[in-house]
Structure formats: C-alpha cells, structure tokens
Write a structure and sequence with these properties.
By secondary structure, this protein is an alpha/beta fold. It has 12 helices and 12 strands.
Length: 376
C-alpha cells in the first residue's frame, strides 16, 4: 500500500511562551488548514519529556481535545530524541494495515521554561542506568564519541567548527528554525567549552516547538518508500566501536532494502546532528561516505559530485532541538522539499528522493525514513 505526506504545519522552534499543547495545536491547525480540513481518523503524538519536564501526562488526549480530533483513534510514542520519527513510522504502519484512512502525526516538546540542569537530567534518563549512576550527561558521552572519531581518523577540530557554520548558514533561510543568524568559525571556536572537543556552538540547543504532518493513502511526490529502525547497546562500554553507530547502519540498510534503492539515488538528506561530529558519523553510517572520509565534505573542495544536498533546513544544530519534534521535523522538511513547498530553503533542482535519519538516546534507537515520488 502506498502512503504519502500530503500536508505539514509548524510551530516555530525556539524559546516560546506557550504551553506544550498550544504549540502542538498550532502545528496541527496549520497542517489541517493546508489539507482543507479533511477528517483525520488516527492521531499519533511523538513526545519525550511531557511528564518529567512539563508535569503533563495523557498528552495525546490533551492535544485531541484542543484540536477537535476527539473522534480519531490515537496514541503517544516515545523513543527519546527520535520520538517524532517513531511516531511517523507508527502512523505509516497503521495506514498500511488498512484500518485507517488518514493520519496526523505531531512531534512536540516544551523545554526552555525549566533550568538547563533540570532538562539535562531529564534527557539523561535515556542513557544506560550505569551511566546515569555516575552522573553522565548527553554532551559528556557525545564528547567521548567525538574524541574517539577524531583520534581514529586524525580529524582537525576545525572541521567541527565548519559543520556548525554550515548549519547556521542554512537555518538562517528557514523561517521555522530557532537560529536565524549565521556564525563564523571564529565565533564557534570562541564559544565556551561544554565537554571538549565540544563547545557550545557544536551542540544543539534545547528548544520549544512542534511540527505536524498529515499522511494519506495513495501516491504523491512525498511518498513513503523506505523505513528502517534498529537498536544498539545503550551503554557505550558495551559497544564494539565508538566511531560509528550500528543502529544507524542497520536502520539505513533496512530502509534502502525496503525502498529498493541505493545511497547513490538519494538527492537530499536530513541527518541528526545534535552534536557537530555526529554529522560525520551519520554520513558514513548511512553510506554517503566511506569510513573516515566525511570530513572532506567540509574541507578539501566539499562533498563529491553526485552527493545529496545535506541538511538544507539547518539540521538539529540550526533548527534547535525540541527533542520530541526533531525526528519529525527532518521528515517534514524532506516532504516540503519534494513537494516544492520549502520556500527560501528550497533545493534546486527539486530532488526526487530524500532521506531522514533520527537518533534516539545516545544512538541506541535510530530511525531512517526515505521519501520519494514516482519516476519522472
């Protein structure tokens, strides 16, 4: 059965005064208006922190009540920072089952009204219990991964700076993004250390925001052609290789196999770059670059000819990171590019196939989604 994205809606990412459900309702309203208010019979909400940070549970009911979707079936999906992507996959499977006709997927998070330390503690709950017990945080463990990658492939740290510069340059063209101003290499290098080699501007910012997409049966320019997800050991100490994420590699293999295509056929990629060095690992895990060669995309003349356009939305680094929404934001950004609705962020020529990759936790549960239209 063919399923496609027929509409999208956003509540801009960044510090927002509105509560979680109001942000979600803003995105839902825009998506439904773009669809002409056609009826929806299945609602899926991706969210990570509503209970631990916002003190709200039963989020799917709250959103259904606020948006007039009480007659739909619904559920909430949680997969840490991949919650939005997981919600999208769940909705696709529901439509493919034949039980539902039209699904609305929402990814939403409210983070900025709590102290940073409190949010960091909540995010660390997605780590292994042994890591939590010693006070590990997401940036601290990401720094270990980044150190290992840099040492193994002798990467100049300036590459990490260039990735952040590219993200902010792209997000400045994206009206939904938190960051609207480009930065320089010098500004990235001068930002305060978080956990070396990571500095502040190498790390995605916590944010508020929401995104919604409508899925319908049938074909279209943003059809769902491939899905994949996979797990890896939660604890870093249990992993064979810290310079690669097995969950991304396996999820990508499964998505490409289900789509019947290879990485060479992808024209656009939205990859999860919550930390600048992760983008290098993503490029290699998905199959766009050989191991250790991704830094060349940002130096030595740029990516090889025929490579996909990378993160034109600004990525997680540029858009901001409302964790429950980020995975769905990648997919919505793809859909808008394929449908010719990306505005100032539009890629020229319009790509026919796009790929989104989302990381859950410290890459312990990752998702890959491939969208594409009919040959043309």
């Amino acid at each position: 059965m063919t399923v496609h994205v027929s509409a999208t809606g956003w509540a801009r990412f960044g510090p927002r005064p509105e509560p979680l459900t109001v942000l979600a309702a803003e995105a839902v309203g825009k998506a439904l208006n773009a669809l002409g208010r056609k009826p929806v019979d299945f609602l899926v909400v991706g969210n990570m922190l509503a209970g631990s940070v916002n003190g709200e549970e039963n989020v799917v009911s709250r959103i259904a009540n606020r948006t007039g979707l009480e007659t739909a079936a619904g559920l909430r999906v949680e997969a840490a920072s991949a919650s939005g992507a997981a919600a999208f996959h769940a909705a696709v499977h529901a439509l493919e089952s034949g039980r539902y006709e039209r699904a609305l997927v929402v990814g939403a998070e409210k983070m900025t009204d709590r102290p940073t330390a409190e949010v960091a503690a909540a995010l660390s709950h997605s780590l292994h219990a042994s890591e939590q017990a010693v006070g590990a945080t997401m940036p601290a463990l990401a720094a270990l991964v980044s150190q290992r990658y840099a040492e193994r492939y002798e990467v100049d740290p300036e590459v990490f700076d260039l990735i952040s510069v590219a993200a902010r340059r792209a997000s400045a063209r994206n009206p939904h993004a938190q960051f609207q101003t480009p930065v320089t290499v010098a500004e990235v290098r001068a930002s305060r250390p978080i956990a070396l080699p990571l500095r502040l501007l190498h790390c995605a910012s916590i944010a508020d925001g929401a995104v919604a997409v409508v899925l319908e049966k049938g074909g279209g320019p943003a059809g769902v052609v491939g899905l994949g997800q996979a797990f890896e050991a939660m604890a870093l100490v249990d992993r064979a290789d810290l310079s690669s994420f097995a969950a991304s590699r396996i999820a990508a293999e499964r998505a490409f196999r289900s789509a019947g295509i290879s990485p060479r056929e992808v024209g656009l990629a939205e990859l999860h770059d919550a930390f600048s060095p992760f983008l290098l690992i993503d490029l290699e895990d998905i199959g766009f670059a050989e191991a250790g060669t991704a830094p060349r995309w940002f130096r030595d003349g740029g990516p090889p000819a025929g490579s996909p356009v990378l993160n034109p939305s600004g990525g997680v680094l540029g858009r901001g990171h409302p964790v429950g929404a980020s995975g769905l934001a990648e997919i919505a950004s793809l859909a808008e590019q394929l449908r010719g609705e990306a505005g100032a962020s539009a890629v020229d020529p319009r790509p026919r196939v796009g790929l989104a990759q989302s990381i859950g936790g410290l890459a312990s549960h990752n998702f890959v989604t491939i969208l594409g239209g009919p040959p043309g």
